[in-house]
Amino acid sequence: MSQRNHYYLSIDDLSRAHGSEPALSYDGAGPGDFAAALQEALRGPALFERWRAMQPDPDEVDMSLGGTDPSAEAKAAVSDLRTDVDLVTSLPMRVVRHRLNLLIGSAWQLRDMRAA
Predict the structure, then answer these.
(1) In what order do the strands lie in the sheet containing 82-89?
(2) What CA–CA distance (Å, rounded) separates 23 from 51?
Protein backbone atom coordinates (compact mmCIF):
# COMPACT_ATOMS: atom_id res chain seq x y z
CA MET A 1 0.00 0.00 0.00
CA SER A 2 1.25 3.50 -0.85
CA GLN A 3 2.21 5.91 1.86
CA ARG A 4 -0.42 8.55 2.57
CA ASN A 5 0.70 12.16 2.72
CA HIS A 6 -0.89 15.22 4.26
CA TYR A 7 -0.54 18.26 2.00
CA TYR A 8 -1.15 21.74 3.45
CA LEU A 9 -2.03 24.18 0.67
CA SER A 10 -3.21 27.77 0.47
CA ILE A 11 -5.05 29.77 -2.16
CA ASP A 12 -4.84 33.56 -1.92
CA ASP A 13 -8.09 34.40 -3.71
CA LEU A 14 -10.31 31.39 -4.39
CA SER A 15 -12.89 33.52 -6.21
CA ARG A 16 -10.28 34.31 -8.90
CA ALA A 17 -8.63 30.89 -8.97
CA HIS A 18 -9.37 29.15 -12.26
CA GLY A 19 -7.52 26.77 -14.53
CA SER A 20 -6.59 27.80 -18.06
CA GLU A 21 -9.22 25.54 -19.67
CA PRO A 22 -12.74 26.68 -18.67
CA ALA A 23 -14.25 23.25 -19.37
CA LEU A 24 -11.99 21.72 -16.69
CA SER A 25 -11.67 24.65 -14.32
CA TYR A 26 -13.13 24.97 -10.82
CA ASP A 27 -16.23 27.14 -10.88
CA GLY A 28 -17.65 26.79 -7.39
CA ALA A 29 -18.88 29.10 -4.71
CA GLY A 30 -16.46 28.67 -1.83
CA PRO A 31 -14.03 26.55 0.17
CA GLY A 32 -16.43 23.66 0.71
CA ASP A 33 -17.20 23.46 -3.00
CA PHE A 34 -13.50 23.57 -3.84
CA ALA A 35 -12.66 20.81 -1.35
CA ALA A 36 -15.41 18.64 -2.87
CA ALA A 37 -14.15 19.35 -6.42
CA LEU A 38 -10.54 18.53 -5.48
CA GLN A 39 -11.56 15.38 -3.65
CA GLU A 40 -13.61 14.22 -6.65
CA ALA A 41 -10.71 15.04 -9.01
CA LEU A 42 -8.37 12.83 -6.98
CA ARG A 43 -10.76 10.00 -6.19
CA GLY A 44 -11.89 9.29 -9.73
CA PRO A 45 -10.55 9.52 -13.28
CA ALA A 46 -13.18 11.89 -14.77
CA LEU A 47 -11.18 15.16 -14.73
CA PHE A 48 -8.02 13.47 -15.99
CA GLU A 49 -9.91 11.67 -18.77
CA ARG A 50 -11.62 14.91 -19.90
CA TRP A 51 -8.23 16.63 -20.00
CA ARG A 52 -6.62 13.68 -21.80
CA ALA A 53 -9.33 13.69 -24.48
CA MET A 54 -8.49 17.36 -25.21
CA GLN A 55 -4.82 16.60 -25.93
CA PRO A 56 -3.57 16.47 -29.55
CA ASP A 57 -2.59 12.81 -29.15
CA PRO A 58 -4.42 11.30 -26.15
CA ASP A 59 -2.62 7.98 -26.59
CA GLU A 60 0.73 9.70 -25.92
CA VAL A 61 -0.34 11.18 -22.56
CA ASP A 62 1.66 10.01 -19.54
CA MET A 63 -0.89 7.68 -17.93
CA SER A 64 0.84 7.91 -14.56
CA LEU A 65 -0.81 11.33 -14.26
CA GLY A 66 -4.17 9.52 -14.25
CA GLY A 67 -3.68 7.86 -10.90
CA THR A 68 -6.56 7.96 -8.45
CA ASP A 69 -7.00 7.56 -4.70
CA PRO A 70 -10.56 6.51 -3.79
CA SER A 71 -9.89 7.48 -0.17
CA ALA A 72 -8.48 10.98 -0.81
CA GLU A 73 -9.84 13.53 1.65
CA ALA A 74 -9.88 17.30 1.18
CA LYS A 75 -11.04 20.03 3.55
CA ALA A 76 -10.89 23.76 2.97
CA ALA A 77 -11.67 26.82 5.07
CA VAL A 78 -11.11 30.55 4.94
CA SER A 79 -8.31 31.70 7.22
CA ASP A 80 -6.62 35.12 7.25
CA LEU A 81 -8.20 36.22 3.95
CA ARG A 82 -6.98 33.11 2.15
CA THR A 83 -8.29 29.58 1.72
CA ASP A 84 -6.37 26.87 3.53
CA VAL A 85 -6.68 23.35 2.15
CA ASP A 86 -5.85 20.15 4.02
CA LEU A 87 -5.46 17.21 1.68
CA VAL A 88 -4.70 13.61 2.64
CA THR A 89 -3.91 11.23 -0.22
CA SER A 90 -1.59 8.47 -1.35
CA LEU A 91 -1.10 10.16 -4.73
CA PRO A 92 2.33 11.64 -5.48
CA MET A 93 2.75 15.42 -5.63
CA ARG A 94 3.10 15.39 -9.43
CA VAL A 95 -0.47 14.03 -9.76
CA VAL A 96 -1.83 16.40 -7.10
CA ARG A 97 -0.10 19.32 -8.85
CA HIS A 98 -1.56 18.35 -12.22
CA ARG A 99 -5.14 18.18 -10.86
CA LEU A 100 -4.76 21.44 -8.94
CA ASN A 101 -3.44 23.18 -12.05
CA LEU A 102 -6.40 21.91 -14.07
CA LEU A 103 -8.84 23.14 -11.43
CA ILE A 104 -7.31 26.46 -10.33
CA GLY A 105 -4.16 27.10 -12.36
CA SER A 106 -1.15 28.36 -10.43
CA ALA A 107 -3.27 30.14 -7.77
CA TRP A 108 -2.22 27.68 -5.04
CA GLN A 109 0.85 27.26 -2.86
CA LEU A 110 2.16 24.18 -1.06
CA ARG A 111 2.84 25.24 2.53
CA ASP A 112 3.89 21.89 4.01
CA MET A 113 3.78 18.15 3.44
CA ARG A 114 4.01 15.38 6.01
CA ALA A 115 3.37 11.68 6.23
CA ALA A 116 -0.26 11.15 7.23
Answers:
(1) 73-79, 82-89, 5-11, 108-115
(2) 9
